[in-house]
Structures are given as structure tokens and as C-alpha cells.
Write a structure and sequence with these properties.
Strand content: 25-35%
CATH superfamily of the largest domain: P-loop containing nucleotide triphosphate hydrolases
CATH class of the largest domain: Alpha Beta
Number of strands: 11
CATH topology of the largest domain: Rossmann fold
Number of helices: 10
Radius of gyration: 22 Å
Helix content: 25-40%
Structural class: alpha/beta
CATH architecture of the largest domain: 3-Layer(aba) Sandwich
Bound molecules: iron/sulfur cluster
Strand order of the largest sheet: 3-6-7-2-8-1-9-10-11
Number of domains: 2
Length: 289
């Protein structure tokens, strides 16, 4: 079983359009939506939820006992999660990393660590195979952890059902969730666009895949909106041993199809669809070899 993560370095490059097209073309596979902060793969795949579970994140400290305002916990917390007021001690649950130092140090055992629900993850069925996806609760920060969790579940499903591939819609950006989207995958595809910020984000995403030693492909979406920048990306790929699958031209039919929740690859007249199908034909030979 092989895994490919489709990432972009930033949102809005067409990553999910390309991933959902691959999933449609692949048919029998397991898909994962790692964009747990703003999931949208489900819009195209219309999953039927079979199972939903609470995601319990790491621990966080809370003041539960009688505080004598000694200030030791505030001094000891290196994450600056604790502040004091005239009357009490406050622990910021977002800054708290659950290290437990304050609980240890409190002379009157006024602090306790708790695990809290931080989101929900779903195991669903789609026309194109099982899908694992999740939603973080508002204010929850553990997107890297929940991405790791849903990827483990997807791997179990793939192994137990003899699926040959896992197609991962990676998290955008280059932070913890995208690192979790890449950890342990066989291949990565970076979707970029020919803008200055696109080039910069593309290079940062490539730094990550290089760090994890992942065989990486690239494709340039809306390549003809700036031919000069497209060439810069092609040259970068050539000079950095990165396989450029090709360029997808700007195509009005893509947003039209998306607005109707239709797969662009179902439109035989679409120039973008022709390229995406061509890319999948190349990738599937590698994934299923
Ligand atoms: S558990 Fe650690 S990070 Fe959280 S408030 Fe206590 S000392 Fe700070
Ligand atoms: S260490 Fe305990 S008693 Fe001292 S300020 Fe913190 S919570 Fe209060």
C-alpha cells in the first residue's frame, strides 16, 4: 500500500480540486482530509458518515483547588501560560502545553491536568472508497495531533481492506499539520501557482519534503497567468531533482464545475481536466507498481 500527500505550501492553489479529481479517477482507495482547520474535501466527495469519535487532545492545566497566590506556577511556566490577577491565577488553555510543571510545583496541590475534547473525527464511506476526516473544535490548537490520528486510522482501514493506495489532501501551509500530513508517506505532490508568494511557499514546502526524504512531484496550476514565474518554477524543479508533472492552464470551467459540485475531470472539454487526467495516469503507474 502506497501513500501520497498532496500539499501546497499555502491554501487556494487548487490542491483540493486536484486531490478530489485524483480520488474520483482512482476509485478504490482510502482518502484522508488533513485540512482539519478548514476541511473541504467532503464537499466534492459527499461522504456518508459511518462513525464519529471525539478527539481527546493533550493535557492542559486547570486551577481546581484553593490557591494561596504564591506565584510559583507563574514563575515556573516556560510557556507563559499562567498569569495572576489581584484575586486569582489564570491559565490560558491555548498557551498551556500540558507539561505538568505547575502541578508539580504548587505547594497546595491547587492545579490539576485534564485531557479535553478538541475535535471530532469521522470514518465515512464515499463512492470512491472510505474517507477519514476531522473537524477541530473552535479554539483548539492540536491540528498536528488530530492529523496524525486520522492518518493512523486511514492506514488501518487500507491494510484491513487490502486497499492499494491512500490519497491525502494535505494541510495547507508548512506548520505542524502539514508535517503530520507528510510523515511516513511514500510520495508528495506540491501544487503551486506562478505568483511570487506561490513560488516562495512552493520552495518552503519542498524544503519540508526534502527534510523527510520523500520522493516529490510538482505541478503548476493556472500556469499561463504568469509565464515568467512558471518558468522560474520549472527551472527550480529541474535544478533540484523535483519531477514536474506538468502545467495546468487557467480554465474558467474549473470554478464553474466547483460551484455545481461537479468533478472537473468529468468535463471532456476542459483543458485543465485533460492535464489532471494526464498527471493521474503518470502517478497511478508509480503508486500501483
Ligand atoms: S502545564 Fe506546563 S505549560 Fe501548562 S500551565 Fe502548567 S507549567 Fe505552564
Ligand atoms: S503555585 Fe499553586 S498556590 Fe501558588 S500561585 Fe500557583 S496555583 Fe496558586
Amino acid at each position: 500500500m502506497k501513500q501520497i500527500s498532496i500539499i501546497s505550501g499555502k491554501g487556494g492553489t487548487g490542491k483540493t480540486t486536484i486531490t478530489s479529481s485524483f480520488i474520483k479517477l482512482a476509485g478504490d482507495q482510502v482518502s484522508v482530509d488533513c485540512d482539519v482547520d478548514a476541511a473541504n474535501l467532503h464537499i466534492m466527495l459527499s461522504p456518508v458518515i459511518k462513525e464519529s469519535n471525539d478527539f481527546i487532545g493533550g493535557e492542559a492545566a486547570r486551577v481546581t483547588g484553593e490557591c494561596i497566590q504564591c506565584g510559583k506556577c507563574e514563575e515556573a511556566c516556560r510557556f507563559m501560560a499562567i498569569s495572576d490577577s489581584e484575586t486569582d491565577i489564570k491559565i490560558d488553555p491555548i498557551k498551556c502545553e500540558g507539561c505538568g510543571v505547575c502541578e508539580e510545583i504548587c505547594p497546595v496541590d491547587a492545579i490539576e491536568l485534564f485531557s479535553e475534547k478538541q475535535g471530532t473525527y469521522y470514518i465515512s464511506e464515499t463512492k470512491y472508497g472510505p474517507m477519514v476526516h476531522a473537524k477541530l473544535d473552535p479554539g483548539s490548537e492540536n491540528s498536528g495531533l488530530i492529523v496524525s490520528r486520522i492518518r493512523e486510522i486511514a492506514e488501518d482501514i487500507a491494510v484491513n481492506n487490502n486497499k492499494k493506495a491512500i490519497l491525502i489532501d494535505g494541510a495547507p501551509g508548512i506548520g505542524c499539520p502539514v508535517i503530520s500530513s507528510l510523515n511516513g508517506v511514500d510520495y508528495a505532490l506540491i501544487v503551486t501557482e506562478p505568483t511570487l508568494s506561490g513560488i516562495s511557499d512552493f520552495k518552503k514546502a519542498h524544503e519540508l519534503t526534502k527534510f523527510f526524504n520523500i520522493e516529490t512531484f510538482a505541478c503548476i496550476n493556472k500556469s499561463d497567468i504568469n509565464e515568467k514565474n512558471s518558468r522560474i518554477i520549472s527551472d527550480y524543479c529541474r535544478d533540484n531533482d523535483l519531477t514536474l508533472l506538468g502545467k495546468i492552464p487557467y480554465d474558467e470551467m474549473v470554478p464553474e464545475a466547483l460551484s455545481r459540485k461537479q468533478f472537473i475531470v468529468d468535463n471532456p472539454k476542459s483543458p485543465a481536466a485533460k492535464k489532471i487526467i494526464e498527471f493521474w495516469d503518470k502517478l497511478k503507474k508509480i503508486l500501483y507498481s
